[in-house]
Amino acid sequence: MQNKKIRIFIIAGEVSGDVLGARIMREMPDVEFIGIGGENMIAEGLESLFPMGDLAVMGIVEVLGHLKTLTGRIRQTADAIIKSRPDIVLTIDAPGFAKNVIKQVRKSEAGHNLIDKGLKFHHVVAPQVWAWRSGRAKKYARIFDKLYAFFDFEVPYFTKYGLDTVAVGHPIADGLIGKKGMHKTDLNEKIITLVPGSRMSEVKRLMPLFHDVVHQLVANGYRNYKFVIPTVETTADYVSNCVKKWTVKPELVSSDKRYELYSKTYIAIVASGTVSAELAMLHIPTIVVYKMNPITLWFAHILIHIKWVSLVNILLNSCVYPEYLGEEANVDNVLNEIQQLTIPSVRDKMISRLKEADDMWLRKEGTPAALIANSLRKLV
């Protein structure tokens, strides 16, 4: 073991990565962390190079609109890596940003010198090559030295190209599996949780739908419902300004209170993404919706070759959570699903199916953060 303090340059591009990054930092208190993160990693002592929200962009058109900012951040991050001379660069999700940063480092003379001295590039979250663009697996093998996937079935897609890949379980399952949601239907006040996502582009597209769902429910006589929106730092101000204009105003809670909210949720209506997996682990009846730029949606229909977008549906190969994407994400469809989920037999069937996935989320060897931390320590 070398005497110098281990230095890791860590990059998280969105809220879920920020949460996992903070857990990894807690597992490695004797390590010096520098890089980019959000409120969770900052709470663990990270001085973020710039606001994490600058990276929270998704979709072809949306990325093009922020290209100048992203290009500048890529260059700034690559320069910071070269200047700080870390032992390992650990990137968590945000694959486009991560790959471009590493390419910048690799092509520079100073970066080559660091690599010759042992700098390694590790990435957390395997791209869904089993769903679309399978060629990415080979590209990842050329860019990264190690990949941390969530599930065993993902590993062979990358090891066949020589990329050291290990399955560590799904990070959000840590602490969630085994907790019970609220499944009673006889309460005076039922909480409808609305989650518009963490990226500004998706929030802007879903908030009008959520407005219409809330007001239509109340107009239809569902007055014993309480509406709550958990907010994240990247979009909290925008969401707050939106609901100020609503006649029926949802309660806003901060993201660090979301699990307490989820545990009391009667029905959730959420953007496709990590949150649907969180709710599946908690056995919460949920409706998944997503809206995107029409051009992005057109490309998605051509390129994606899976039936479902929700991870629990993919794992169970069944439509456990109803999904409405694009134009199908409308008031009528959502209201119909809400009505269905007020029927006890329908709720019970969904909850039973969600429980079937419990054993798929975590590994017996330890939590994802602990497994990643142990792997990092072995290299330095």
Note the main sheet: 6 strands, parallel
Q: Strand fraction band?
A: 15-25%
Low-confidence stretches: 58-65
Strand line-up of the largest beta sheet: 2-1-3-4-5-6
H/E order of the elements? EHEHHHEHHEHEHEEHEHEHEHEHHEHHHH
Structural class: alpha/beta
Tally the beta strands: 12
List the helices and strands and how they pair.
Layout lengths: L6 E6 L2 H13 L4 E5 L2 H5 L16 H6 L1 H18 L3 E5 L2 H13 L1 H8 L3 E5 L11 H8 L2 E4 L6 H4 L4 E4 L22 E6 L4 H20 L5 E7 L4 H8 L7 E4 L3 H6 L1 E7 L2 H8 L4 E5 L3 H10 L7 H6 L6 E3 L5 H10 L3 H12 L2 H4 L6 H10 L3
Parallel strand pairs: 1-2, 1-3, 3-4, 4-5, 5-6, 7-8, 7-10, 8-9, 10-11, 11-12
Helix pairs in contact: 1-18, 4-5, 5-6, 9-10
Q: What would you say this structure looks like, in words?
A:
It is a single chain. By secondary structure, the protein is of the alpha/beta class. It is 44% helix and 16% strand. The protein contains 18 helices and twelve strands. It has helices at residues 15-27, 39-43, 60-65, 67-84, 95-107, 109-116, 136-143, 156-159, 200-219, 236-243, 258-263, 274-281, 294-303, 311-316, 331-340, 344-355, 358-361, 368-377; strands at residues 7-12, 32-36, 88-92, 120-124, 146-149, 164-167, 190-195, 225-231, 251-254, 265-271, 286-290, 323-325. The longest helix is centred in the middle third of the chain and has 20 residues, at 200-219. It is globular and about 70 Å long. Mean pLDDT is 88; it is low at 58-65.
